[in-house]
Amino acid sequence: MPTPAYKRVLIKLSGEALVGEQGLGIDPEVVETIAIELKACKELGVQLGIVIGGGNIFRGLSASARGMDRVQADYMGMLATVINAMALQDYLERNNVFTRVQTAIKMEQLAEPFIRRRAIRHLEKGRVVIFAGGTGNPYFTTDTAASLRAIEIEADAILKGTKVDGVYDDDPAKNPNAKMFERVTYLDVVNRGLRVMDMTAVTLCMDNNLPIVVFNLTKPGNLKKVLLGENIGTKVIGD
């Protein structure tokens, strides 16, 4: 069996990754596909933590822009991440992958509260830990939650799955001549406003020297290739 490049990682999934072609909600076929990919990665012996967004169900910032109270809207967005986490947990366990969902907001009938030492212990026992509820605070995105959880569990890297191949100097959907970076520094991301993660998340990673790998999750096998250290996507690192 090939040797993974990482021992423990935090995978950041957007809520939109679960949508498929339907445009909203959760597509069971898509979740099944992601679960199978994660199982293949788990079989490499890598410890997997996951932070999942909720934008396929409810996006707090968008609702706030349309007049809803920002704090209320953000809490609704956090609840959406719990729904997605439960869906992903179900499909992982259908594929015989042991999991735990931990939430930043207490809801013991559905999931464990986030406790750092317990999360690390689950990872050491070979369970996939899905972190839901964002940071538990309004005004912070799930990107920031991913950076925070990755630092707390002492992950070797954040792997951010997207629908594009990596980080570009322009929007590749609008500019066919957009250039993709193989490597880019945290400062370049901040100074050039590159679309990697929000600035709070990027600066957290920079302060803690935590690499970010941005890759195309929709291509089968890409996640496993990243874990094996293949040159997939864009790596965000220090100078």
The helix-strand sequence is: EHEHHEEHEHEEEEHHEHE
Shape by Cα distribution: globular
Gyration radius (Cα, Å) is 17 Å
CATH superfamily: Acetylglutamate kinase-like
- Total strand count, please? 11
Biggest sheet, spatial arrangement of strands? 4-3-5-2-1-6-10-11-9
**β content, as a range?**
15-25%
3D architecture notes:
The protein has 239 residues and is α/β, with parallel strands linked by helices. It is globular, with a radius of gyration of 17 Å. The chain has 8 helices and 11 strands. The chain has a single domain (8-237), classed as Carbamate kinase (3-Layer(aba) Sandwich).
Offer a quick outline of the entry.
The chain is of the alpha/beta class and 239 residues long.
Descriptive tags:
239 residues, alpha/beta, Carbamate kinase, two-stranded antiparallel ribbon, 37% helix
